[in-house]
Structure to design on (645 residues):
């Protein structure tokens, strides 16, 4: 038995084979070949494998979702075997002496262009099908694995760390838990794991060796324990723990439908943070009141080019209509810093966290912002939408962003497109500057939502991605909590509501503090909703408030 | 050779999935099947070219069926269009 200690960032126990993440090659190699027959044979082998994989997917889809779903994969099969497609690849190999990868990539590009140039949006979208099929063949040719997990059974996924775009593309049905070498509790892998409700352990360094691939591993996200080839006694103990967790889950299920109200009658809204419309199912399953943070970045991360208005509109519309009239706060584009996207062509920066990111990009490149705001207002007709701007530091930024909203509302009205004129517009409070001038900002918007990960990083001058900073990165720091109180007071003086949408919202050690300072909404990962509800229902704010505020605002060096 | 004309009623036209269904159907026959729209014509077995014609609801196309089983093939393919497209 090998035991490894890491840092647990998402609770739960999972057992399964250990699997090392395989990174897909991002560039297509291009070279001249002499033996064109051999190159053609390479293509044919890859094509056959792709057709075979698609056939398996079709059967899986048929079993799970019926003939309609299977037909899509069968169509992809036909595209992979299409005569014109094949002929064009053959010409590229035989006449232009290109290697198979380049031949497939070029041909796919031509066909995708043909579809993209058609005058009907439905046909234009088929360019994506061609790219999907070609991507599969390329993946086989280069030995890369689509989605990073090529296993018939679900696995415990080990990686150095995963980029946001990589986590988005993972086949989540194949993952029981995560182990990463680096990372922090605020990293994207950690956030994804919490959203999925599966355990994750980070910061194990080089302790995992490739020889352990495929071995049975048990991970416990509550204490960071990793057991490889566990002995019988440890195995039994961990399986028992898994059972206990299921019981706790069953207990929590009893809390469904109960209000989030304290013993003395103070209520708080508990919402969810999500990263794509697919996460709505988990939000509803855990009985959250709404979505407090919908990160719109996934739309951009999933594309090779700027996502157009219709594509964005469909995604927002789906989330809004699936939430059935419950509030959905969608945050506008928040890239830059640790989330980079190639086609934005952002220059490298020395300090990206302090650089061109989020709303700054949107205000500097209004055409990108305009597309997103139009898609959002069009979707507003299908549910209860609120719009939120990230990374605000000044009043003028908010005014400029709101001007874009007014422009779009007028455009849509003139075009006769239905929209909700009552959409609330709010901002993230995630910089010390925004917190300090929150009295002025409150006059400009309908709500505040505090992003505690960034607020902690900027207030404490601690990079949230740097896992070596450990004890210096302390979200319980009184400077952070005092800023939150200041923001709350200023919001309430101006009659607007204030929430928390950072990881801190789910920290049960702070729930008393949040209720005492008057937070109106806590937005957390779906699995945290019911534990938080349980905690809220145990608190009597009248009893704790005085001490909490004295500890927070007094000059005694308490442990807060 | 047998020919028939057909006007598409499917609201999204011959996009990926219907085109796939059509190719699958046509593979059953020995005859060569050609789809004609205006000046353009393609072999109906060529999925991407077929999709590339951008055939939409309301478009009238002519289908030519040429080969040993053209009698039955044309009748059955016409019935297929009426049922699916």
């Amino acid at each position: 038995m090998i035991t490894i200690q890491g840092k647990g960032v998402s609770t739960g126990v999972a057992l399964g084979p250990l699997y090392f993440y395989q990174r897909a090659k991002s560039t297509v190699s291009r070279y001249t070949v002499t033996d064109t027959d051999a190159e053609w044979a390479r293509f044919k082998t890859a094509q056959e494998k792709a057709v075979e994989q698609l056939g398996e997917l079709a059967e899986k889809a048929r079993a799970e979702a019926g003939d309609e779903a299977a037909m899509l994969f069968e169509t992809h099969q036909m595209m992979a075997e299409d005569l014109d497609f094949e002929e064009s690849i053959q010409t590229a190999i035989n006449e232009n002496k290109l290697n198979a990868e380049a031949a497939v990539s070029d041909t796919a590009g031509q066909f995708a262009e043909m579809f993209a140039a058609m005058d009907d949006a439905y046909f234009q979208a088929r360019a994506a099908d061609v790219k999907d099929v070609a991507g599969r063949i390329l993946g086989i040719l280069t030995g890369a694995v689509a989605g990073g997990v090529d296993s018939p059974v679900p696995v415990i996924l080990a990686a150095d760390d995963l980029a946001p775009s990589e986590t988005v593309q993972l086949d989540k049905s194949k993952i029981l838990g995560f182990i990463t070498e680096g990372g922090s509790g605020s990293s994207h892998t950690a956030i994804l794991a919490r959203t999925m409700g599966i355990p994750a352990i980070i910061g194990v360094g080089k302790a995992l060796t490739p020889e352990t691939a495929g071995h049975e591993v048990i991970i416990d996200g509550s204490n960071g324990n990793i057991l490889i080839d566990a002995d019988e006694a440890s195995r039994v103990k961990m399986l028992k723990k898994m059972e206990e967790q299921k019981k706790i889950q069953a207990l929590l299920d009893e809390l469904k439908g109960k209000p989030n109200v304290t013993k003395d009658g103070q209520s708080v809204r508990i919402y969810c943070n999500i990263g794509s419309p697919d996460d709505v199912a988990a939000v509803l399953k855990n009985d959250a009141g709404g979505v407090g943070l919908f990160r719109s970045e996934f739309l951009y991360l999933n594309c090779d080019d700027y996502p157009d208005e219709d594509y964005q509109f469909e995604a927002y519309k789906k989330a809004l209509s699936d939430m059935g009239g419950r509030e959905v706060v969608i945050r506008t584009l928040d890239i830059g810093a640790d989330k980079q996207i190639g086609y934005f062509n952002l220059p490298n920066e020395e300090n990206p966290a302090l650089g061109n990111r989020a709303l700054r990009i949107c205000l500097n490149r209004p055409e990108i912002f305009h597309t997103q705001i139009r898609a959002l207002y069009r979707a507003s007709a299908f549910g209860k939408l609120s719009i939120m701007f990230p990374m605000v530091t000044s009043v003028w930024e908010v005014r400029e962003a709101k001007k874009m909203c007014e422009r779009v509302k007028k455009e849509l009205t003139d075009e006769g497109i239905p929209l909700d004129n009552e959409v609330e517009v709010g901002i993230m409070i995630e910089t010390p500057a925004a917190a300090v001038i929150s009295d002025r900002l409150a006059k400009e918007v309908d709500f505040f939502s505090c992003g505690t990960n960034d607020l902690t990083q900027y207030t404490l001058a601690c990079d949230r991605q740097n896992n070596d900073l450990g004890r210096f990165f302390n979200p319980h720091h009184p400077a952070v909590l005092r800023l939150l109180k200041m923001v709350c007071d200023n919001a309430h003086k101006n009659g607007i509501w204030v929430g928390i949408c950072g990881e801190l919202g789910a920290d049960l050690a702070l729930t008393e503090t949040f209720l005492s300072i008057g937070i109106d909404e806590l937005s957390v990962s779906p699995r945290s909703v019911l534990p938080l509800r349980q905690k809220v229902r145990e608190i009597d704010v009248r009893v704790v408030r005085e001490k909490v505020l004295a500890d927070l605002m007094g000059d005694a060096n308490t442990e807060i | 050779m047998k020919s028939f004309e057909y006007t598409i009623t499917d609201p999204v036209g011959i996009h990926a999935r219907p085109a796939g269904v059509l190719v699958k159907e046509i593979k059953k026959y020995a005859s060569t099947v050609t789809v004609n729209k205006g000046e353009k014509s393609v072999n109906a077995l060529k999925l991407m070219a077929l999709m590339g014609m951008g055939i939409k609801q309301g478009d009238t196309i002519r289908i030519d069926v040429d080969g040993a089983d053209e009698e039955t093939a044309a009748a059955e393919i016409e019935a297929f269009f009426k049922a699916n497209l």
